[in-house]
Amino acid sequence: MLAYTVRRIFGMIPSLLLASVIVFSFIHLIPGDPAQMMLGDLATPSQVDALREAMGLNRPFYVQYFIWLSGVVRGDFGQSIFFNQPVLSVIADRAETSVLLALLSITIVILIGIPVGVLSAIKHNSRLDQAVSALSMFFASIPTFWLGLNFMALFSVTLGWFPTSGFPSILQSGDWSNIRYLILPAITLAAPNSALIVRLTRSSMLDVSNADYVKTARAKGLLDWRVNMRHIFRNSLVAVVSALGFTFVALVAGAVVTETVFSLPGVGRLVVESLLRRDYPTIQGIILVVAFLYMAINLLVDLSFALLDPRIRYS
Amino acid sequence: MNKKYRFLFRRKIALLGFLFITALIFTAIAAPFLARVSPLTLDPANKLIPPGGVALLGTDNFGRDVASRAIYGARTSLVGGFGVVVLSTGLGVLTGAVAGYFRRLEPFLMRIIDVMMAFPPLLLALVLVSIFGRGMVNVIIAVGATYLTRTARVVYALTLKIRTEPYIEAATAGGVKPFAIVLRHILPNMLSPIIVQSTFTFAFSLLDLAALDFLGLGIPPAIPSWGNMLSEGRMYLTRAPWLLLCPGACIVLTVLSFNLAGDALRDRLDPQLRRNIEGV
Amino acid sequence: MAGDIVSINNLRVSFPSESARIYPVDGVSLKILKGETLGLVGESGCGKSMTSLALMGLLPRPLGRVDGGEIIFKGRNLIGIADAEMAKVRGRDISMIFQDPMTSLNPVYTVGDQIIEAIQAHERVPRTEARRVAVDMLRKVGIPSPEKRIGDYPHLMSGGMRQRVMIAMALSLKPELLIADEPTTALDVTIQAQILYLMNDLRRDLGMSILLITHNMGLVAENADRIAVMYAGRILEEAPTKGLFASPLHPYSRGLLDSIPRMTGGGDKLQSIPGMVPPLNDLPKGCKFFGRCARSTEPCETKEPPLFQKGEGHSVRCWLYEE
Q1: Residue of A nearest to C104 (CA)
Q2: Do C107 and A314 touch (CB under 8 A)?
C-alpha cells in the first residue's frame, strides 16, 4: 500500500510539469506584447519596459519557464500586477470564502446525492424513481447563475431568510453565524452537482445489481436491505467516489459563477476580476493551484480505490 | 401506473424534447419573420415595460423588445452550440482514435488529455476568451477546445474496445492499411455513441456559453444572446423580473431538451457502448 | 431413499414480452427424493434455470413471476409465502451454486466473510463460532490450510478453488437440497471431475438431495440417479438414469443421446437434432417438439401429448406411446 502510494505520487510529477507548461504558455498566447496588453493603452513605454523586464519577457521562452518554475517550486508564484503583491498571498486572502463554500457544497452533494441515488435505484421504476430522474435531469439543465439569481430573488429579497450578498470573514470576526451568508450560494452550487451524483449513484447501483455475486447474496438468504447495502452499494462506491474527483472540477467552475452572483470575496470572483483586469500572473497562479488540487484529489480518489477494492490493493 | 404506460410516458417526454429542438431550429431560421421589431431597436420612451403591454414579453432597460431578443438569442445559442460540437467532436474523434489505434502516440496524447482534464472547462474558456478577445468565433474555439478532451476520452475508450474485435483483427490480417481500418472499420462502429456524446456536449456547452456571456467574457453585448440578456437583466432582479425569467427559461428548456434527446438516444444504444458516454 | 423433499406441481412461470406474456416454464411437475441427485437436462433456454430460480424464489423481479402451480417443500407451499419467510428457506433449507465461480463471489469481501455472512444470516451464533464452522467447511471441500485461506479475497483463488468456496458456503448450514446450476461448465475438464466427486461425497455425508442442472448428458449419466429432460418449458421425459440411457423413449431424448460422442462403437457419424429451438412466443400448437421431430404423426401438430407412464418411474410426453 505504501509502495503504491509512493509510486502514485511520483507518477504525478510529469503531469504536474505538463500542467505548469500549459499554464505558463497561456501568457504567450496573448497576441502582441503581453506586457503592453496587461498594462493597457494608458501605460507609458517605460512602464511597459519595466514590466517586461520584471517578468523576464525579453528572454527566451524556455529560460522564462525555468525561472518561473523554480519560483513556483519555492512557493513564489510571481507578483500580481493589480495588487502589487505576491500572487499566493492574494489567493490566500480570498481562500477562506472559497474553501468554506466548497466544503459546504460537497457536503450537500454527498448528503443528498448518494442517499437519493441509492433510494432511486432500490425503488427502480417506481414513481419515486421516475420523479427523482425527472428532477435530477431538470437540475442538471439549469445554469448555475440563473438558479442563484432566482434563489436570491425568492429567499433573500422576497422572504428575507438569508442575506443577499457578500460574506464577512469568519476567521477575522470569529463570528460563525456569518456562515448564513454562504448557505444560499452553497445550495446553488450543490444543486446541479447533486443531480449528477444522484444519476451516477443510481446507474452504478443498477449496474452492480446485475452481478452474479448479488444473486449469490440473495441465494444465501440475506434480507433485501442487506443485499442492497452490503453487496450492491458497497461495490458501486468505486464509481461514486471517482465521480467526486470530477465534482471538484465542476465545483471550481461553479464557484466562479456563484461567487460572482452572490458577490462573495472568493477565489472564483478573483478569477473573473483578474481576467477583466488582465492580471495574468494572478490567473496563472490560480489555475496552477486548481490543477494541483485536482491532481491531489485524484490521488486521494485512487488511493481510496485501493481501500475500496482489494483487487487493486494486491496488484 | 403500469409499466407499459410508464415506458410510453418516457418516450413522450423524449419526443417533447425533440419537438422543442425542432421548433427552436425553426425559430432561429425564421427569426426575422417572427420578431415583432428588431432586437437592437432602442426605445428609451418604453423602457422596462412589463409583459403584456406594448411588448408581449416586456422591454428591457434600453426599451428593447425582450421577445425579439429571445428569438434572436435562439439563433446565437444554436450557432454557438453547433460550432462547439463540430469543433470538439471533429478534433476529439481524431485525437481519441489516433491515441487508441496508434499505440505509440498513446502515452503522449492521453497524458495531455488527462492534464487538460485538471483545468475546469469554464475556467479554461474564460482565460482563452480574455486572451483572444470577445466574439462568437473566439467563444466557440474556447469552449470547443475544452470539450475536445471529453470527446477524445470517450472515443479513445471505444477505440480500445473495438480494436480487439475479431473483424478488426481479420481486416488487419487481411492487410488493410491502418488509416483505412480506423476510417472504414472503427469509426463507423462508434458513430451512434459519438452522436449521443455530441448531444450531451451540445447541452452542456450551452450552459458554459451562457455563463461566459453572463460573466462578461462571452460574445459582445450588442449581439442578442440569452446569456447577455441575463447579464444585463441581473441589475433589475426585483424591478423587472421578466428580464430574467424569459431568457433563463429559454436556456433551461433548450438544455433540458438536448439532455432528454441524449438520454433517449443513449437508451437505444448497445449497452456495451453506453457505459463509455459521459452524459447526465 | 424415503419420501420426497420437494414436489413441484404444475409450475408455470411467466415473463412479459413485446406482445403477450411468455412462459419459460409451463406446467412442470417434478419430485426430488431424499438423498438422490435429480438431473434436469435440456438445451439453453429450455426453462431449466428458470425452474430452479422459481424454486429459490429468485425470479428476476419485477418482470418474472409464478403464474400457477405449487412448490411443496417439507409440507409447505413456497409459492406466495412472504419474502422474509422465503429468505429463511434460502441458504438454510435450499442452497444454490451457480455456473461461473469467477463472478459469483463478491470481490470486496474475503471468502471467510462471505461464508460467515451466510451462517449468521440464519443462525444467531457469535462470529468466532461462525468462523470455526467456516474453517471446517473449507476443510471439508478440500481447501488446503483453511485457517489461512479463509482470509483470502476471491481474486487470489483459482476457478476450481472458488467453486469449492461456493460449495462450502452453500452447504455451511447443511441444507436438504442443493441446486447446482451448470456447476462445472466454466471449469477445466480435470477440475470438473473433482468438483462433481466432491459434491457426491458431501451429498452422502450430509444426506442431502441435489438438483443438477446441465446441458451435458455425459454429466448426468455419471452423477444423477434420475433424469428429467426439459424442452420449451415442459418435461418431455422422466426416468431413472439407467432406464433412460438403456431405452430413451422420446425422440428428443434419443436425439440428445445420439449427439454424445462415444469411445466405443467405432466410426458412426455423430448425430445432431435438425432445426433450432423455437422462440417462446412462437411455439408449435401441439407437441412443442413438432417440426424438429422425424417421427411426428398427425395428432402431434394440433394436440399436445400428456405424460404417458411406461414402466417403473418412466414417463414420456409423446403420442407414440399412447396406450
Answers
A1: A213
A2: no
Domain layout of chain B by residue ranges: 29-278
Number of inter-chain CB pairs under 8 A, A vs C: 74
Instruction: Please report the ipTM that was assigned to this predicted complex.
Output: 0.87
Query: Which set of grid coordinates corresponds to residue A241?
Result: 467516489
Question: What is the DSSP secondary-structure string of A233-288?
Answer: IHHHHHHHHHHHHHHHHHHHHHHHHHHHHTT--SHHHHHHHHHHHT-HHHHHHHHH
Asked if B237's CB is within 8 angstroms of A152's CB, the reply is: yes
**What is the largest distance, in Å, between two alpha-carbon atoms of chain B?**
76
* Nearest chain C alpha carbon to A231: C106
**pLDDT tens digits, chain C, 323 residues: what are they?**
458 899 999 999 999 887 788 899 999 999 999 999 999 999 888 899 999 999 999 988 778 889 999 999 988 999 989 989 999 999 999 999 998 999 999 999 999 999 999 999 999 999 999 999 999 999 999 999 999 999 999 999 999 999 999 999 999 999 999 999 999 888 888 888 899 999 999 999 999 999 999 998 888 999 999 999 999 999 999 999 999 999 999 999 998 888 777 666 555 666 778 888 888 888 888 898 888 888 888 888 888 999 999 888 899 999 988 87
Residue A210 contacts C where some CB pair is shorter than 8 Å: no
Q: Which fold has domain B29-278?
A: MetI-like fold (1.10.3720)
| Cβ of residue A28 closer than 8 Å to a chain C Cβ | no
Burial class (CB in 10 A: 0-12, 13-18, 19+), B120: buried
Rounded to the nearest angstrom, the minimum Cα separation between A3 and chain B is: 22
Interchain proximity C108–A310, CB inside 8 Å: yes
Q: Three-state DSSP class for B40?
A: coil
A184 touches chain B (CB under 8 A): no
| Type of residue found at C285 | K
Whether A234 has its CB under 8 Å from any CB of chain C: the answer is yes
B114, B126, B259: residue with CB nearest A15:
B114
Long-range CB contacts (< 8 A, 24+ apart) of C73-81? C73/C5, C73/C6, C73/C177, C74/C5, C74/C176
- Name the DSSP class of C100: -
Write the pLDDT tens digit of every residue in C53-98: 999 999 887 788 899 999 999 889 999 899 899 999 999 999 999 9
Chains that touch C (3 or more CB pairs under 8 A): A
CA B124, distance to chain mean position in Å, is 16
Instruction: Locate the chain B residue with the closest alpha carbon to A33.
Output: B131
Q: Do C153 and A231 touch (CB under 8 A)?
A: no
Which residue does chain A place closest to C120, by CA atoms?
Answer: A222
User: Cβ contacts of residue B270 below 8 Å, gap of 6+?
Assistant: B192
Strands, E assignment, chain C: 4-16, 21-33, 37-41, 65-73, 76-77, 94-97, 177-181, 209-214, 226-231, 234-240, 308-309, 315-316
Q: For residue A218, list chain C residues with Cβ-Cβ distance below 8 A.
A: 58, 90
